[in-house]
Design brief:
Elements: E1 10-15, H1 25-34, E2 42-48, H2 51-58, E3 67-74, E4 83-86, H3 95-98, H4 106-115, E5 119-126, H5 141-144, H6 147-157
Parallel strand pairs: 1-2, 1-3, 3-5
Antiparallel strand pairs: 4-5
Helix pairs in contact: 1-6, 2-4
Keywords: Aspartyl protease, Hydrolase, Protease
Family: Belongs to the peptidase A31 family.
Protein name: Coenzyme F420-reducing hydrogenase delta subunit
Length: about 160
């Protein structure tokens, strides 16, 4: 049975952990989107560090998802706050997508989703500081300043 949170054609999935500084970027973008009126076929998920669990369910043949937009921090050694939209071809360059804290690589699920016909887009923001394992709630100024542009990138993808 498909969970209600996955009964949409387009899903925006915010990844990361808001208690580790800039790793809360995905959460903050989802929070802004939740305050907007979005098309009825768009679902929002604050997945935290549990994105692989949602993606496993998307593989179900009865799941209606046609497009996934992942919102997360990246580390491409860019200027902090720099946004980048990419497809799964760049996943291998993002360490956290190949090995995560639960040994469930997100990249495998995203590749399988795309192979099954689901369009996959990643909107990444270059982090300045991720404090794990030390707790620090709140984004750095550079990443915070990129939130509105990230929201606009998501809105372009869900038209």
């Amino acid at each position: 049975m498909i969970p209600d949170s996955l009964k949409f054609k387009k899903l925006v999935i915010g990844c990361g952990n808001l208690i580790f500084a800039d790793d809360g970027f995905g959460y903050e973008v989802i929070s802004k989107l939740e305050k907007m009126e979005l098309p009825k076929d768009v679902g929002l998920i604050d997945a935290g560090t549990g994105a692989p669990y949602y993606l496993m369910s998307i593989m179900d043949k009865d799941c209606p998802v046609e497009k996934i937009i992942i919102v997360d921090v990246i580390d491409f050694k860019l200027e902090p706050g720099t946004l980048q939209k990419m497809g799964i071809d760049k996943l291998k360059k993002i360490d956290k997508y190949n090995f995560d804290a639960h040994d469930m690589p997100l990249s495998n699920y995203l590749i399988k989703a795309e192979e099954s016909g689901v369009e996959v887009i990643i909107i990444g923001c270059q982090a300045k500081r991720i404090t794990m394992p030390d707790i620090e709630v709140g984004l750095t100024e550079e990443v915070k300043n990129s939130l509105d542009d990230a929201v606009n990138m998501v809105l372009e993808e869900i038209k």
